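lol ok so funny story. i was supposed to be doing the assay writeup but got distracted and ended up predicting the structure for this chain instead. priorities right. anyway since i did it might as well share w the group, maybe its usefull for someone
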Amino acid sequence: MLSILGVLGYGVLAWLGLKLAVLLLNMRLFPVLKREEPHGPRPAVSLLVPARNEAHNLRETLPGLLRQGVQEILVLDDHSSDATAQVVEEYSRQDARVRLLVGLPKPEGWLGKTWACYQLAQAAQGEVLIFTDADVHWGQGGVQAVLARMEREGAGLVSVYPRQMTHSLAERVILPLIDDVLLCYLPYPLLRTPFPSASAANGQVMAFTRPAYRASGGHAGVRGEVLEDVRLAQKTKAAGQRLALALGGGLVAVRMYRGLGEMVEGLGKNLIEFHGRSRAVLALSYLGHLLAYTLCWPLALFNPLWLGVGVLGLLERLLLGLKTGRPAWEAVLVPLAPLLSTPIYWRSAQGKYTWKGREYSR
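and the output, tada:
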């Protein structure tokens, strides 16, 4: 008769096996942006950047935006308390394509980012609207690659998952989990279907044709959504438009968070949304990850099945890194991931959260 430890082990092993199967499929099929030119005439492009207390990031990312050869770069200062506006004005004096917008007060029922993006869309003149976060780094030819993908796929929306730029140990341990969710749970062939429920997107980079943006209802239609990116993707498909996805590869990268404190606040606000807003499901997820990646090693002393669990977890992280361009040695850090993620899970289980100086209730 199987012990409880054995039953748990087979369950976790089956879960990791399914994740690995999806990952292997996505390693083959999930597109990665590459330098290429669209075949048809290049449409007028508006790069749209919502910014709240992003002075430090904009100094690093605006030069890359200017190298994209687009018609306009609009940065909306959403009531920042730092030098965001001054940084944008400096670049605006050097290049007339850069324009600073001053955000209006946020109406009731809107989240800060959706309200900022709505105002940007209202001011934009381009045929293609590319919403990009202030911390996203664009390499030479990045926008061209997005336009080429849009043309090839006949897509109304192209969303890009930038390569994660990491420096601290905590960043190297935790941030690859974002790629894990995408590549180990969401089979790319399923995401290509027209069904709105089979949608994914990343609000860090979302490129719409203007007709597709209008058809989806734009940010006004997702004004109170924490996962506004996924909802926009669903509404875009529901409107009969095609959705295309890609990894950023060497063309689009992001430095999302600087250290564990920022990750707790940033990831903590979204994590429970990915678990159906259920604290019970969130707790089960935490326990599952703890067993699969951390506790498997001491449990292997009592049941060798858990050694297989641990090896499979290491293999998963190794293959994930190969697909996303991460160093192979980082795979050995995977046992630390559930431990360092503990405060993120705890933060996500709370009823309120603070982001960019604003307090929200779930």
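The chain has a mean pLDDT of 93. The radius of gyration is 21 Å.
back to the writeup now i swear
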